[in-house]
Amino acid sequence: MIERIKEILSSIEGLNGWKLNEKRTESKELFFIKKELDMNRGKNVHHIMLTVYKDFDQDGKKYRGSSATAIHPTMNEEEIKKAISDALYAAGFVKNEYYPLVEPKVEIQPIMENRFRLESMSSWMPKLTDEIFIGDKYNKGWINSAELFLDNVKIRILNSQGVDASYETYRGELEFITNWKEDESEEVELYQDILFSDYDEKLISESVDEMLKICRDKAIAKPTPMLENIPVILSGEPVKEFFYYYYDQAAARSVYEQTSTAKIDQNIQGEDVKGDKVNIAIDPYLDNSTSSSPYDEDGIRLAKATLYEDGILKRYWGNTRFSYYLGIKPTGNIRNIIVEGGNKTLEEMKDGPYLELKVFSDFQMDSLTGDFAGEIRLGWYNDGEKIVPITGGSISGNIKEVHKEMYLSKETQKTNNFRGPKSIKLLNVSIAGVE
Amino acid sequence: MKISRRLFLRLFYFPLVKISNDLAECKINRSIHFSGYDSRIGGERDELENSSIIDYLIFSNQSDKLVIYVIGNNFLRGCNMQVIMSRYLHDKKQLLKELVSELSKAFKYASILGTDICGKTYSVYKTGASINDSEWTERGFVVRVHNGYNYTEYSFNSLSEEGIDSLVESIKNKVNDDISRLKNSTVNIGTYPVIDEDKIIGEVFKEVEILPEEVSAEEKIKKMTRIKDEAFTYSALLVDFRIVYGECHVSKIFISQNKDLEQSYIWSQGSLSAVVRRDHNTKFYYDSAAGLRGVELLDELQHKIKEVVSYAEKLLDAKKIVPGQYDVICSPGISGLIAHEAFGHGVEMDMFVKNRAKAAEFINKEVASELVIMHDGAAAAENVSSYYFDDEGILGTDTKIIDRGILKTGISDLLSALRLGTKPTGNGKRESFERKAYARMTNTFFEGGKDRLEDMISSIKEGYLLDVMLSGMEDPKNWGIQCMILIAKEIKNGELTGNIMSPVIMTGYVPDVLKSISMLSEKVEISGSGACGKGYKEWVKAAEGGPYIKARVRLG
């Protein structure tokens, strides 16, 4: 199919470049209600996305238009030609500043080691299933339902400059719901979705066990009280979401499009920072991350890069196009984020009253404005004397009003494409309690 | 009436095609290329085929009289145009029937859904533009078979007449191998009855005013660029102004032993968003439109430019809300968000099967104010999720979920209905042919009431008018909802003060929110510009809405 498309492309006039992104996916999927298999699915699909480039001049300035179109494996010659012709026509009206395509490099194609490769996917599914239900061992708590996906993905990237890169990876996903029912209280549930790319014998069973224990606390949680001027400690997944602000602000695209005001050699946290300063890097190879890849979508070979050192923005990250616009060396699109831990241990962070929040309905950080908020599904309130699980209500704030004095835990966590502090302690967060 | 270049091409490919009630059987045996004029002419066939001014031609099935329509550069309006079924699916229909027939010899139930979705998304912003295939673009198939215990599905997107025997063998081997491995492991396999279907043969091809193909990419980008340029005349604080417009031509075919269904429709969606900055304070505001419409949607967006810029500027002076309980008026968009999160996800009946829905315990019980009537259904309204049949071959319906405050029923996919012994409601939707079908929302909305918005505002001593949704999330088991809202317009002593708060998070216990509804305006507005996920995945198009409603909620 690829050769057929290349042949057609070579016969088309007015084309100034092209890129092909090929993805072949074979998957196995199991759907459970409690411990019973409700459905099984499989797929074998082949996707090709073609991007065509057309250069033109206007008022003495050079532009490069592009348009991406799907080439389905069932398309005949006539349909492929029409899709390319339509895309090329459209590219002529896409007025973007000129940028070069990625040039090829002579190198050995990388092989990403993976334990899933050792056996067939059909063999892995019963094994992974066992690990889901190992943790389902409590009388008052159980797994309500689970969905398990394992994809084998083969990627190939080609362009008109001669790039021809390929690699193979896996994408695993487990979505599960845990329930807990205490004698006197209402039955409660919590949702969890974990992603993985390699086999880790502890990941699934430990995640299930952790969620069941959290669910147990939710079953006995009290309504979040009305609180003012109390430190808020974010733990777990919300920490990852919080740090996306710094990642997005350092994106070359955001800077070029002026949605980011972050400046090189300036402290993103402002002057006179009292708490921990952020140290953030991006790394294309993070263990067991579905975002790990040797190449980005344009075919750039990826390598680790430091974005922030002690709060100071050291460099922007971005693909060839937006890096070219800013006149910087492209890092390529890297989606694994590494944040260094801070100076205080969790124990030290929890000295005195606090509200620790771990599970939200959907904690969100708006990287443009810095606003963050979420409805509380589970947290713990320490009033200085006792610790009580709480639920309900919400928190809201703006990162620009909290990051001059925030504390990152020394202990770190790893969740798919993020490695960073387990917790962050924030002041000046608004809490809408229930009582 | 008008006709498009795309339609011409379709006619060329289809010896028999339904165009409208009075036209059929078009045979055109050569391609023609003409420039267009905004007028209509008629004449003899030979003369007209050789003319250099004709854009399109069609034949009447009543006689040999040739009718020619010439289209100029304007976005012409008039009679609606019927959307044409995918030529690819049409051509493969017989092959799909053979596939189902062969699979039916090995399995007690076999069906196939074929999808061919094409479309483009256009974006224009300060520093550039883009025209790419829509993210909803796909072409592929999903087979469902009864494996002897329950159901197995297999998704693929390669199909050829020569390979049909090997495809059948491959599906049979995969199904049997997977089930055999699972049976020999510690996995318990649940059981489902075999689907018993009524015989239905049908097709629906919807209409739009302007087919996407009628307007060139150049014209669309030019129009969007004019919108962007106009926006920049309204504010010096504007950092960026983005216009996104997308169109999707959906064609689906469903074949089983008893069903032979085809449908094709077009939906489009668009949005305007303004980013403004003063010093280090950056804010954004957006508005959107969507529906079973074509390029005419761009005209609708054009009227919103000034307001979008104006509100973005106002947000620079927005204050933080003091957390607490407030009387509020929710705009139709926020009403829709509440409907969607409160008793949309909460009554998806696959949640009943899993015992995840608290709603299952409240059927025929009071869950809302007696003023509240709420619907969902592909046939309940006309918007982006108004289809003829769902992704399991069940015809779309109109489900009254809440009637005068009483929870009546949920919305269901086919397999959940089999498990529950209920009737499926045509709500089985897939993110794509590659994903499982779940019980999903279509058009979810509150019916209108009898109040006037002015009276609703004047009834509030201290509260807010909530407008512009950002996102929502629900807890179907414990009935908590989270609604992220961009703007809260302050109301004091029955009047809007002009002060706004932003952003705002609305949370609460679903019955508390719905029981507090005390006023509803007359007009219902439904919007389908967003996408709905199940948990954090399985994104599908869905529409929601309602009238303005007055309620009491917790804001933070």
Q: Summarize the largest interface: chains and residue counts.
A: A-B, 88 and 82 residues
Protein structure class of chain B? alpha+beta
CATH architecture of the largest domain in chain A: 2-Layer Sandwich
Find the count of extended strands of chain B (DSSP E, 2+ residues): 31
What is the CATH C-level name of the largest domain in chain B?
A: Alpha Beta
Name the poorly predicted regions of chain B: 1-78
Largest sheet of chain B: 8 strands, mixed
Q: How is the quaternary structure best described?
A: heterodimer
In the predicted model, the low-confidence regions of chain A spanning at least 5 consecutive residues are none
Number of separate domains of chain A: 2
- What's the mean pLDDT score of chain B? 86
Q: What is the end-to-end distance of chain A?
A: 63 Å
Corresponding CATH superfamily of the largest domain in chain A: PmbA/TldD superfamily
Blueprint of the fold:
The complex is a heterodimer of chains A (435) and B (556).
Chain A (H helix, E strand, L loop, with lengths): L1 H9 L6 E17 L2 E23 L2 E10 L6 H15 L29 H14 L6 E19 L4 E17 L7 E9 L6 H17 L2 E2 L8 E4 L1 H13 L2 H5 L23 E3 L22 E5 L2 E2 L6 H7 L10 E3 L6 H4 L4 E7 L3 E2 L5 E12 L4 E5 L2 E5 L7 E3 L3 E4 L2 E4 L1 E4 L3 E3 L3
Parallel strand pairs in A: 7-16, 8-13, 12-20
Antiparallel strand pairs in A: 1-2, 1-4, 2-3, 4-5, 5-6, 8-21, 9-10, 9-12, 10-11, 13-15, 14-15, 15-16, 15-17, 17-22, 18-21, 19-20
Chain B lengths: L4 H9 L25 E4 L2 H5 L6 E4 L6 E5 L10 E2 L4 H20 L3 E16 L2 E6 L4 E9 L4 E6 L7 H20 L4 E2 L10 E6 L1 E2 L8 H16 L5 E19 L2 E20 L2 E11 L5 H6 L2 H11 L8 E7 L1 H12 L6 H4 L20 E3 L22 E5 L2 E2 L6 H7 L7 E2 L8 E2 L3 E4 L6 H6 L3 E14 L4 E13 L2 E7 L2 E6 H6 L3 E2 L4 E3 L3 E4 L2 E5 L1 E4 L2 E7 L1
Helix pairs in contact in B: 3-4
